[in-house]
Specification:
single chain; alpha+beta; 16 strands; 23% helix; elongated
């Protein structure tokens, strides 16, 4: 009799429990869906959101530019986004997302003097008006923490705009992107995330970037490798203003950048191939070569330039400029091309180039 009652209870209870679990799971997914919609803010829109047992599918995602002066109409467009959550975490203080897979996307990134901006509509709090002196502190309205175990980006492109080198932001297009970012904690972003990126640059060069970083304080250990990048594309990084002009050539670069407690140290190796320059500091290439020959130096202006260098400095030091440090290496490379530069350079604010010029011009 007891075994018959137990079997009856199991026959009734197990299907009921399964129904309750499935119902609870879908209820939790609907909560996550609402949080996703809320996170998109006023500039975000989607064509369709579908919920299944395994994940949430988002189609036709668009996040329009949320800041004045953004160099593109959208911060992000993606044809398809698949979000796979961890079931047990959906109703907990920290939601765990196993993966976010993004396909056929276009992302715009802006570098300004205020720093690197990526998806400010999602990752930056909107500016708030200053509180009146007598106003009481507002209560915290922070939502749940979200831990994303893995984000992948496939068959996508990134339009990188740099507003620090020219009045009109320099545009560097990257496509055929394969990216993965692991262990991202929102909104704090104060844990170490692992990054792996491969892309094509301007339709012919290649880029590989991998390592780890802490987005909140920019501590990082990253290795960058560039190959066959057209020099004309990155001319503003090699010559400041009208200091020189690139006619043709390609760039290969290996750079190991470390940032710890806002201190940057980045040793690298650069090769400039088939380089042809127009003017250098107001001189034509021929005039610069003639000056080199007058010094008794080989002035083959078409030979490859191969040099080691180190970028270093305190990111919080107002006297340190990463752009100026890069300009210094570009200047050293141009000098080496005509036989004036040394084979290596170390620069925190252009000192390497300055010492070379002092040695040759006696100033």
């Amino acid at each position: 009799m007891k075994s018959r009652k137990l079997r009856l209870a199991l026959l009734i209870g197990l299907p009921l429990l399964a129904v309750l679990l499935v119902t609870g799971y879908f209820a939790a997914l609907h909560i996550l869906k609402q949080q996703i919609v809320a996170a998109l803010g006023t500039t975000g829109e989607v064509r369709e959101i579908r919920i299944s047992l395994a994940h949430i599918e988002i189609e036709g995602l668009r996040i329009k530019a949320s800041r004045p002066g953004w160099p593109a109409a959208d911060e992000l467009r993606a044809e398809r986004v698949s979000v796979t959550p961890a079931l047990r975490s959906l109703l907990s203080p920290t939601i765990v997302v196993r993966s976010i897979a993004i396909e056929d996307a276009a992302l715009s990134v802006l570098r300004s003097r205020a720093g690197l901006k990526i998806l400010p509509a999602l990752l930056e709090a909107p500016a708030k008006p200053a509180a009146k002196p007598e106003a009481a502190p507002a209560a915290s309205t922070s939502g749940p923490k979200i831990r994303i175990e893995r984000i992948t980006l496939a068959n996508s492109r990134v339009d990188f705009f740099d507003a620090t080198v020219a009045a009109k932001p320099l545009h560097i297009p990257l496509d055929q992107i394969e990216l993965s970012l692991e262990n991202l904690l929102l909104p704090a972003m104060d844990e170490t995330a692992l990054l792996h990126l491969q892309a094509r640059v301007a339709g012919q060069g290649s880029l590989a970037l991998e390592g780890d970083l802490v987005p909140a304080n920019m501590d990082s250990d990253l290795k960058l490798k560039l190959a066959n990048v057209p020099l004309k594309l990155v001319e503003p990084y090699l010559f400041k203003g009208k200091a020189g002009e690139i006619k043709r050539g390609s760039l290969a670069l290996d750079l190991h950048s470390k940032v710890a407690q806002r201190q940057l140290k980045a040793p690298g190796h650069m090769v400039l191939s088939q380089l042809e320059i127009g003017g250098l500091a107001g001189l034509t290439r021929e005039a610069a070569a003639a000056f080199a020959r007058a010094k008794g130096l080989d002035a083959d202006t078409r030979r490859p330039v191969d040099m080691d260098f180190t970028l270093q400095g305190n990111l919080d030091d107002a006297r340190f400029s990463l752009n100026d440090a890069i300009y210094a290496q570009g200047g050293l490379a141009a000098l080496k091309l005509i036989g004036l530069g040394s084979s290596s350079g170390s620069s925190s604010s252009g000192g390497g180039l300055g010492e070379t010029l002092k040695g040759w011009f006696g100033k």
